[in-house]
Amino acid sequence: MSAFSLAVSRTSCGVSPKIIRSTCKLLSNDGHSATNVEKKFHRRSCCILNVRRLYSSQPHHPKVPQQPTWEAVPEDQLPPPAQIPADLVDKLERLALVDFRTKQGLECLEKAIRFADQLHVVDTTGVEPMDSVLEDRALYLRGDTVKEGDCAEELLQLSKKTVEEYFVAPPGNIPLPRREERAAMLKHSEL
Amino acid sequence: MAASCVAASELLQNMKLISGFYPKASCVIRRISTTNARCDGQAQPRAKSAPQQLVGVVGLEIHAQINSSTKLFSGSSVRFSAPPNSLVSLFDASLPGTLPVLNKRCVEAAVMTGLALNCTINRKSLFDRKHYFYADLPAGYQITQQRQPIAVDGMLTYSLLGGKKRSQVIRKNVQIKQIQLEQDSGKSLHDDVRSQTLIDLNRAGVGLMELVMEPDMSCGEEAAAAVRELQLILQALGTCQGNMSEGQLRVDANVSVHRPGEPLGVRTEVKNINSARYLARAIDYEIQRQIDVLQRGGTVQNETRAYDSKSGETIPMRDKEGLQDYRFMPEPNLPPLIVYEDNASLPTGIDACQAVVVQKIKEGLPELPSVKRDRLVQTYGILPEHSFTLVNEDGLVEYFEEALKATKKEPRKVIGWVTNELLGHLKQQDLSVSQSPISPSALAELLELQETGHISSSVAKQVFQEMWRSSGKTAQQIIQEHDLGLVSDTTQLHSICQKVVESHPDEVHAIRNGNKKVLNKLMGLVQKETKGRADPVLVRAILQEKTS
């Protein structure tokens, strides 16, 4: 789980706790223990879920099961498990700006891929792929009148470092260190 | 020691190579650079045995900022040089939970631009996320249209002035591959001293039209002419203000060289071209650089280069390490964008203010620059190059037509006053046409006085100067104040002519011997005497009489 714990701690402000929780839960479904992260978010996410319930017009949709149902796909129906070469780990780390090259991290990633492998079993012949569940909705178009902005003070308060009315960021893009350099930097690297 | 040895031997070898190739190479380069400078588009006659020359191939990617009050996906305002971060909404700052809401004006602007460039408007277009990490892109991705843009397969027709006197209009086409709607990024200010970057998100989320042009151009001049024409079209449409210095129009050029008929060479991308003047120079420099590299036996690297306007060179930009993976994915928060062909194709129940109707936009298209130029040439009988000058200057066509209404002077004569006197004075003081101290009707009055024989053409120019200086005074007032009216008093002219004839016996002798051209010299002397105010027709008649 460490990959995801890292991802969570780095991007927690941008990801809804609900999503994190469900991801973790799915991954831990086969007995993988829940992590601190999940526990940490558990109370808050419950709150959010409760609030949603409160405001939703119908307390419960009859077509949505009360409890998640689960049916494991037998291993022999799945394609062979994906191997994750070191190069791919390196690329993923660069793209996601996270380090997860521990044994635990890799295991978690492999489990996530294995979980997604179940999708291969679904027969999609003749089904047009969708981009979004909103596809059949008309895209709402807004009139060109100013209604927002002028809130620099509020926005700048959210930033750790500001100068005058600017946000402050490190110079340029700091590229991630190369794999070899990183391996030396990370104490627990096992690759 | 070893290193320097290697370097020295390499240098030696290079020198050999250069000297070996030099006679041929220099001649080829010279011929190519003259073609580049002219861009005649006419096949150069060449000997059958000679190897074909390397020629430049140029494609452009142009980002045009949409002229709208608010951003592409948020209701915060679009303005240049506002206090930092004052035009930022929660969505523009990518706060969690905010969603994009598309600006109808931006869609209409893109459709209008697509129509003006003869594009096919896609009835359905899609939005995608393009990911990259940079501090002025707070979401970590840009919403763009990668798979299915709003407009495709267009054509831009532009013209170059060519030929010996550069008075021949050469029409050229460049294909428009696509026009896509996308978000602009914020701005980064790099503070090297304190080693930090200051971020201003005022520009983040402003609507852009990215226009992708096929590599149909061959030199800087063609590219600059195409961009200029595009700029005029966008300004005529009002879909983009087109001011390059404010970054409303940003051009990246893809440049390569090859021998005609052979596959395209490895291309470089030249960025940072922020003025029309530098565009042609940057491209021509890059073409020549690549030709030089190839002729030295080297290979062109696929890289991004920046144009340094101070040195006039392009220099490699160290940005991406290898190929970037933008991880394009469909934008999940925006359903497909649908535009409708005409009112009949509107589905029932749709709110009219929600629909973008192509036919309606087509009907509202203004007169495009090329049509305007043709009309000017046909209606007024002016030269094509004058039509270019008129259309190139904002408001000058209107000025010209306004002035024509108030004078009986021929348009072909008025055009000279507008493109030389007026434009010259405006340029000198860096004024726009609307700032001219002489109104079209005031100019017309002056021209009318000249046309009816009240003042000579040289005096008219004097009066023009005076009108420019003392704005508000009419030509009539100035002529009276400075006593500049044409002298057509026959007795007075007779006596002046007599004086001139008497004091120049040699010239008179020459005229009597048949050298009629000398009469012009005497006429000049009379005009000098009268400060250019003598009626030239009268003076000529009197002088002819006196020298016969």
UniProtKB/TrEMBL annotation, chain A:
GO process annotations (BP): glutaminyl-tRNAGln biosynthesis via transamidation; mitochondrial translation; regulation of translational fidelity
Membrane spanning residue stretches: none
Domain of life: Eukaryota
GO molecular function terms noted in the UniProt entry: ATP binding; glutaminyl-tRNA synthase (glutamine-hydrolyzing) activity
EC number from the UniProt entry: 6.3.5.-
Keyword Amino-acid biosynthesis assigned: no
Record's subcellular location: Mitochondrion
One protein family per Pfam: GatC
Chief location category: mitochondrion
Catalysed conversion reaction: L-glutamyl-tRNA(Gln) + L-glutamine + ATP + H2O = L-glutaminyl-tRNA(Gln) + L-glutamate + ADP + phosphate + H(+)
GO cellular component: glutamyl-tRNA(Gln) amidotransferase complex; mitochondrion
InterPro entries: Asp/Glu-ADT_sf_sub_c, GatC
Keywords recorded for this protein, A-Z: ATP-binding, Ligase, Mitochondrion, Nucleotide-binding, Protein biosynthesis
The keyword NAD is assigned to this record: no
Known partners and oligomeric status: Subunit of the heterotrimeric GatCAB amidotransferase (AdT) complex, composed of A (QRSL1), B (GATB) and C (GATC) subunits.
Cited function: Allows the formation of correctly charged Gln-tRNA(Gln) through the transamidation of misacylated Glu-tRNA(Gln) in the mitochondria. The reaction takes place in the presence of glutamine and ATP through an activated gamma-phospho-Glu-tRNA(Gln).
Family affiliation: Belongs to the GatC family.
HAMAP family the record matches: GatC
Protein name from the UniProt record: Glutamyl-tRNA(Gln) amidotransferase subunit C, mitochondrial
Organism: Stegastes partitus (bicolor damselfish)
UniProtKB/TrEMBL annotation, chain B:
GO molecular function: ATP binding; glutaminyl-tRNA synthase (glutamine-hydrolyzing) activity
Gene: gatb
HAMAP family assigned to the protein according to its UniProt record, in alphabetical order: GatB (MF_00121)
Superkingdom: Eukaryota
Keywords: ATP-binding, Ligase, Mitochondrion, Nucleotide-binding, Protein biosynthesis
Pfam families, per the entry: GatB_N, GatB_Yqey
Organism: Stegastes partitus (bicolor damselfish)
Protein name per UniProt: Glutamyl-tRNA(Gln) amidotransferase subunit B, mitochondrial
Record-stated family: Belongs to the GatB/GatE family. GatB subfamily.
Gene Ontology cellular component terms for the protein in this record: glutamyl-tRNA(Gln) amidotransferase complex; mitochondrion
SUPFAM superfamilies: GatB/YqeY motif, Glutamine synthetase/guanido kinase
Subunit description: Heterotrimer of A, B and C subunits.
